[in-house]
Each structure stands twice: as C-alpha cells, then as structure tokens.
Model the fold of this input.
Amino acid sequence: MAGYVIAIAGGKGGVGKSQVAANIAFSFAQESKNKVLLLDFDQKASGDQDFITGIKSNKTVKELSEFKGAIDPRSIEPFLGRHPVGVSYLAMSTDATTSLNINVDGLTKTLKALPNIFPITIIDCGSELNDLALKAMEFSTVIFLVVTPDILAANQTKRMYSDLLTQLFPKDVIQILVNQFQQGHPVTPDVISKQIGKPIFSLIPKDDETCIASLNMRKPAVTVFQNSAFTRGIQETVRKIIQKNVLQALSKLQRKAPEKKKLLPGGMKEGGNIVNRPWIDLKMRVHTSLVDELDMKERDKDKNDPNAAIIMRERAKKKVVELLGKEETKSVIDSREDMNQIVKEILDEALGLGPLEDLLADKTISEIMVVGPYKVYYEQSGKIKLSKVTFSNDRQVLNVIERIVSPIGRRIDEKTPYVDARLRDGSRVHAIIPPSAIDGCCITIRKFPENRLTWKDLVIYGSATQEMADFLRIAVEGHRNIIISGGTGSGKTTLINILGGFIPANERIITCEDSAELDLPQEHVVRLETKPPSLEGEGEIDIRLLVKQTLRMRPDRIIVGECRGGEALDMLQAMGTGHDGSMTTVHANNPREAIGRLETLVQYAGTGLAPKVIREMIASALHMIVQQSRMEDGSRKMTHITELGGLQGDVVILQDIFLFYQEGMDKSGKITGKFQATGFIPKFIEVLERKGYNIPRDLFSNKMQTKPTSSSSPETQRGKK
Done:
C-alpha cells in the first residue's frame, strides 16, 4: 500500500513549526512501528532540524535535487541519516546560498517515489509559500499549518490558508495545529479558528521547559521527555491522525480520480463535438457571479502595464476559487487537475480570449479559425486541424470578438456584421457574425510571428535561394517599385515585411494598412491605419484617403499593405511621380494575372481611364512583380520574380528572372523541386550600375540550380525558431 506525505508549515516564523514537525515524525515512528522519513525543506532556517533531531544526514536536499538516477530504497539510502527509533532524515544545506539554489523540479521524481518507499514522510516546509514548499505540498496528503495563540500569527496563517486555496489545494487537505496552547489565554482556539476561517485540528500545550531542554540535548522531546505536556500534545495529534483514518480519507482528495468521463474538461469529446453541459453550466454560473462581484472595467485600465494585469488576474483567481467553493462541484470536478482547468478557463474567459488563449500561446500554430462555438480549427505546419477546445455558446464567441475590437476603436453589430482588427502582438483578426455568418460567429486570426522573420529565414526554409534574396535586396535598395502577388495565406505580408527590412535606415517610410500588421525594423516609420465609419455613417477613413495623405508627408517610400480598390490608381501615380522604391500587395495567382488585377482595381477609382492608358501607367510605374504561392503541402515559395519590360501594343511585357520548378512530391507528401534563374538580365541592372551598384552577373546564370533546404516556409516553421 502506498504511504502518505505530511507537509508542516508555519503561518509565520517563531511558531515552533520545526520542532513540531520533527517530534511528529518521531511520534509516528513510535506509534506505528513503521519507517518514517523527515525532510527539511526550510530554506530560511537551514540547519535547525540538525539540532532538533541530533541526526546528521549523509547528503543534503540540494544534492538529492541534482541526482539523475531513479529513486528507490537502494538509491536513496546513501543520502539519509538514521535514528534508532526508525526515523530517516535528509537535511537542508547549512549554507544559505546553496539552500536557495535548489533545483525544485529535480525533486519531482523523489516526491513521487517516496510514498512507495516510506509509509510516512514528514516535510518541514518552512514559513513561506516558495517554490520548494509548494512542490512538497503538491505531493502531500495533508498540510498542517502551525499557529500560536497570537493575533498576528493567526492573521499570517489566515493569509497562507487563503493563498493555498487560491493555489487550488482542497480545503479539507489543509488543517490547523495550535502550538503553545495555554488555558486561560485571551486568544482562545475559538478566536483563532474564527480568525482563520477553519476549525482547529489539534492543540499542543505550551511547555517551554521541555522544548528548551530537548534542544540543549539535541534530541527530540518525545524520545527523552515522554511524560511532558508537549510530548502528550504531539502524541495525541498523531493518534488522532491514525485512529480517525485522516490520511486515508484525505488521500482521495489529492489523488487524481480515474477517468470515468469521455468528455474533456474543455467541453468536447475526443473526435467529436459533444458538449459537456454540466462543466459549461458551472463555468457560466461562476463567470456571471465573477462579473457581478468584481469590477471588470479595471481589466482594461493600464493595459500596457503587465504588473496591473498580473494583480488583476490574482484578484480574479481568488474570487473564482471563493465562488466555486459555494457551488456543488462534486459531480463535475473530480480532482485538483479538473479544479485547475476550470479556474483557468473561467479566468481566460473573464480576462482574456477564452478558449483561444492556449492556441494563441502555442508558437507552432500560425492561424486560428473559429466556426461557431463548437468548431475551432488551427493551422500547424501548413495543415489545418480540428482543435479539442470549444466555446460555451455563441454569446461567448461574440464577447471575444468585442474584446478584440473595442480597444482599437472598431465595432461590430448586425448593421455592420464584419470587422478587421488586430491583437496587441500585431496578429491580424477578421470576424463576421450573424446574420451574415449562418453557422454562428466566425473568427480568423493570422498570428504574428514572435520573432521578426528575415531573408535568412526565406533561404533556410526553402522559400527562396540566397541568389534570389541578394537580388531582391539590390532591387529594394535601388528604389525599384515592387508588387507582391499571391493568394490568400501565401505569405504576402511576411514577404513585404522582409523586403521592407532592406530599405536603408536613413529613409522615411510611411505604411498604410486596413489593420496594422507591418513590423519594419527601421526607426523612421510612420504607420497609418484605416478607420470604419461611426454609428451615424460618418468619419470613415479608407486606404485611398490614407495614400493621398502620405503624398503630403514627405515620404521616401510608401508601403500599402494591400491594394483592394481605387487606391491602386493613387499608388501607381505615386510610384510614377518620384516615390520610387514603394511596395504593395495584390491578390493574384501569377504575374500576368497580377497585371489584370491592377487594371481592374484602377477602374474602381471611377476615373473612366481607357484600358490601354491604365496598362501604360502600370508598365511605366512598376518595375517588378514577386509571386508568392502556397503549395499543396502547406509550404510557401517565391515562384516568380518577374520584371516589367514596358508595353508592346496592348500587352505589358513580362520577363521572368527567377522561377521555381516543381518536380513532384516525396514519400512524406512534401513538394520537391528547384529554383532556377532564367538567364534573363533585368534591364534596370544597367541603371543601378550607373548609380554605383556592383552587381555580379552570375546571379542570373541559368546554370544555377539550387534545391530548397526545406519544403516548409517561414510561416509554417514559426514553432522551430
């Protein structure tokens, strides 16, 4: 049968916690005739247990935390000191610096193994809830908090008790021991119990003479003063634990319940969309009460202050634990793991983006797609997968949307049931709600990379070759006007960010976007963003208006996130009238289609220009088109780098400089192929050479054949960075 672990902590220093812990260990050995282990985890009073027990352990807790082998009766033996009554002991290092640098996680395997080695383990946890104490308590069957008849001690113990509840330790696992109890003292056990909010488990009488004498002898009191009041108090405490089967009863609270439910805590069945209604109903009740009792308006105050957010979350966590304590949870929450999960979900819904928080935190996920409350998809390594998380209902999805759009001054309602927005980290968000979305509110989040991608990433992940990256750097530095063409999710924004990084730092850059996504490394960047109309339908600022404003702001470069309408005309005019080196993106499947797309967009401006005039404008303003494509395996590749060579008749001349040739797919389903120069030397090379650029002609040799190092693009490889 597995043994039990008892953690003993003091609400404050000076309550006699270490002496109580040692004597309880020796009393257990005497009463049960079993082996008992005493561990000293008190980092602030290191060495005290050496005096109390008179035992010298062979090694210390620090050395055990660094032990790499398996923990069993034979391997742990060399660490311990022993007493003839059957108590084994492991000391804390007497060096203060060493004791504070213990590998807490390294003790996990030891704490897991101890119940299989010792019937009883007593851990002196000190008087602070530090990482070491909490690790011990995590594996403990019962936690005794030692307090003295003192209002300050009772108040500090109340604080520790409250903190442990916030850490989601079950109430019944935490018990109160009153040490130095005196009959007739004004601070009675009832006063202490009322102050802490917890019944007293046991009383240990005040007996200074016995405690001092045993310390001087360096022997536990229960072994040398067996008839003293202190010893009788310790023995009665131990007998109460044994006779009332306290450890057996409490072990069920800490032990994880067997899996009797197929439903996951988050509300979804493995492989299907079956909602766990009791779990969700409990969450909704507690969430409603939390909003009623806590001023959630403070959530958005000081939103740039991380400390304010931490304080707010701690306050909310305490309130959630308190509210759950008032609910009937036995049929829903089986273990401390379930308790942790439901508290986290409630806090995420109240303070964050609910079920999306874990997906947003996963660095390997590049896109999140919500289709109603019960279907949440994500993209990982270029593949779309169904998530196990769900929302409680459609109202919760709408709450998340409103929480995203309100900080940036946007709105969404039945009159305007769609919105483009961004998260604080720059991730792009699109949302659409009923009546336009038939199956419920939809959210699409394009996650912003944690680290800014560079041209080196393009080469490493096989999206381009070194020669292509070198050529693009030359083109950007040489003020060539570039259109990036591609389909949805092909990596256009990622590429324009990388190309923008080639712009010299001494140039003034102005960006125009629907929702700000560009993250350029230069200091001198002016970022402009569109604004939707007000409720009265006034005050709208679209991309075209922003492009016009940039012309009055002395730009060296203009970067438009994407041309979708009449702003294409203003962009082409800017490119052709002194703002060389500007960039934008369009949706198209190849460079020829990109020309047709630009023609269509210019016509949206409503100027009535003839098609040939538009083509002449495109041919004179643009220098290059870079085509981004998303391949069948989810990878992104730069499939064309194409120069515009003027107008011949009614047709814009396009000359490919670099191409990607797909050869097939390997056994793992990855695209295989190679990048190759066509041998064509761009016409603008001579212009750049006259400006002093030294451009090696072997960049364009058609003998150059470079296979990609990987068939994955930067966007599908974010988790590997």
Notes: Residues 4-254 form a domain with the Rossmann fold fold (CATH 3.40.50.300). The two ends are 47 Å apart (CA to CA). The chain is about 35% helix and 20% strand. The longest strand covers residues 651-665.
